[in-house]
Amino acid sequence: MSADRISGIFFLLLGLAMYFVVNPAYIETVEGGSLNPKTVPNIISVIIALCGGLLVVKPTHHEVGDLRNIARTGFYSLLLIAGLYAMSRFGFEYVAPVLAFAIMWFIGERRPFWLAFGAVGMPALIWFLVTQALGRALP
């Protein structure tokens, strides 16, 4: 069993779980609008499942990478999970700038303009587009 097949099985099961369990439970049906709210999440779930299945059937011949990079990826994943939890408790406006800055800092970005733009500008743009332009609430 190669790492590709294991990750393929994971993404196949994740895509199927998203399509059959998570999306129906957490996507609300709304009146009006030109696009059903479940369309894009369902398409993405199917793509994830298909790509996972393809990786199971036809794995690559790559070798396992450096364990430091794998650990770093795990750290970033935990940071994102902690950030999402913090957003649900304290709100997007307070957590998103800190989370964006932390991610940018940990990946090695040190230029002040890009740190400021990523930590302040992008969360502000996301807030504006989602809450003002689309009329949706952020956590």
Automatic annotation (TrEMBL):
It comes from Neptunicoccus cionae. The chain crosses the membrane at residues 7-27, 39-57, 78-107, 113-134. Residues 6-139 form the DUF1468 domain. Keywords: Membrane, Transmembrane, Transmembrane helix. Coiled coil: none annotated. This is DUF1468 domain-containing protein.
